[in-house]
Design goal:
Strand order of the largest sheet: 3-2-1-6-10
Low-confidence stretches: none
CATH architecture of the largest domain: 2-Layer Sandwich
Structural class: alpha/beta
CATH topology of the largest domain: Nucleotidyltransferase, domain 5
Helix content: 25-40%
Bound molecules: adenosine-5'-triphosphate, magnesium ion
Number of domains: 3
Radius of gyration: 20 Å
Number of strands: 15
Mean pLDDT: 91
CATH superfamily of the largest domain: ATPase, nucleotide binding domain
Strand content: 25-35%
Distance between the termini: 15 Å
């Protein structure tokens, strides 16, 4: 992927807990990690995927760009959560020009919103994995008012939104860039953020199944707040390991264990659903990302449920990284949190 200065974009991942920004530079030797930064945002700024406090969030973005001296103003951002519906549908094979009407008619069944309130995009994935004479089509519907909110936000931050992507696709984009030893294997990408989880089952570069749920590290924070007399901020510090003297450590471990077990159950259910498909092939590897990977016991719990290789994503592996600017300690702490911002920074202005 070569892109010149003209269509160069900064990747901005607006999570409900952290905003992350990444800027890459293409050189003759490869793609260089030029800038990366992240900042925590106040709880309640984004709720259920919707921007609640636009002014403060725009300010946080502006500050993040300033503190990392990012001067490029063209950005790629992504959306996710409730207002985004992603569905792979199977329809009988038909010519391209009949597709539009069929997709819109089919989409009405799956989209819990008025069809006039959403932007619909679709991509033919190829022949269906599930039934002969059918094609698989990936349909994405995003609420128009959500897109409008993101555009307003970016403008308010003094930037230009050039691409509005979807979190799951940006993550897949970062994953696709990585050197891959398990080529041909079915891969499950799982991102567990603060307020949502996304699952994406991939064969090569094609998605076989996607699911979004509302699980995330906020469940742990809420449970800590309900059991102990601590603020949300203190609970957040406890969860991210910045302090361990506020609340008994054993109780925290128990909460983490219970919540991460519920994540495993949910993930196993998705895997089981996938396994009922006709041409099912075993999931060979699971790649984790998001703040959820730091929750003690989660990975082991998942390993005991599913028979697959499990690893944590490191999107920096595909990039040339200057160790003086980004030491190993940074990579270890940030790798799992960075892929969506990196996946967005890899986009170019004329990408769809
Ligand atoms: N070592 C850690 N560093 C950072 N966050 C951690 C760590 N350990 C646990 N966490 C949790 O992970 C959360 C951040 O994860 P992430 O950045 O994936 O969320 P997000 O992208 O903001 O959320 P979402 O995608 O759900 O909107 C924090 O709120 C925190 O509770
Ligand atoms: Mg996120």
């Amino acid at each position: 992927m070569i892109f010149g200065k003209k269509d160069h974009l900064v990747g901005l991942d607006i999570g409900s807990s952290f905003i992350k920004v990444a800027e890459l530079k293409v050189t003759g030797k490869g793609i260089v990690l030029h800038k990366f930064g992240m900042a925590r945002i106040a709880p309640g700024t984004i709720v259920e995927g919707r921007i609640v406090d636009m002014d403060n969030l725009a300010n946080d973005i502006r500050t993040l760009f300033k503190s990392h001296k990012i001067r490029e103003k063209n950005v790629a951002v992504s959306t996710g959560g409730h207002s985004v519906v992603i569905k792979t549908i199977n329809i009988s094979t038909r010519p391209e020009k009949q597709l539009h009407d069929t997709i819109y008619a089919e989409a009405e069944q799956y989209i819990p919103y008025d069809i006039g309130d959403v932007n619909i995009d679709y991509q033919v994935l190829g022949e269906s994995e599930f039934s002969q004479g059918h094609m698989s089509v990936l349909v994405v519907a995003v609420k128009k008012d959500l897109v409008a909110d993101y555009i307003d936000l970016i403008h308010l931050a003094g930037l230009y939104p050039k691409i509005i992507d979807v979190d799951t696709f940006a993550l897949q984009n970062a994953y696709d860039m990585l050197p891959n030893e398990s080529q041909g294997e079915i891969t499950l990408l799982i991102d567990i953020g603060a307020s949502k989880t996304s699952l994406n089952i991939l064969k090569e570069k094609a998605s076989l199944m996607m699911r979004d749920t509302v699980s995330g590290t906020n469940q742990i924070i809420e449970e800590i707040c309900s059991q102990f007399d601590v603020t949300m901020d203190e609970a957040e510090q406890i969860v991210s390991g910045q302090t361990n003297d506020i609340v008994n450590q054993k109780s925290i471990e128990e909460i983490c264990e219970e919540v991460s077990k519920s994540w495993c159950t949910e993930i196993t259910e998705v895997v089981n659903t996938y396994q009922t498909s006709a041409n099912y092939e075993k999931i060979g590897e699971i790649v984790l990302s998001g703040g959820g990977v730091f929750i003690k016991g989660f990975k082991d719990s998942l390993l005991s449920e599913l028979d697959a290789e499990i690893s944590i994503i490191n999107p920096f592996e595909a990039l040339i990284v200057n160790e003086r600017k980004f030491p190993d300690s940074f990579i270890t702490k940030t790798g799992a949190l960075a892929p969506i911002a990196i996946g967005l920074a890899l986009r170019r202005v004329d990408d769809k």
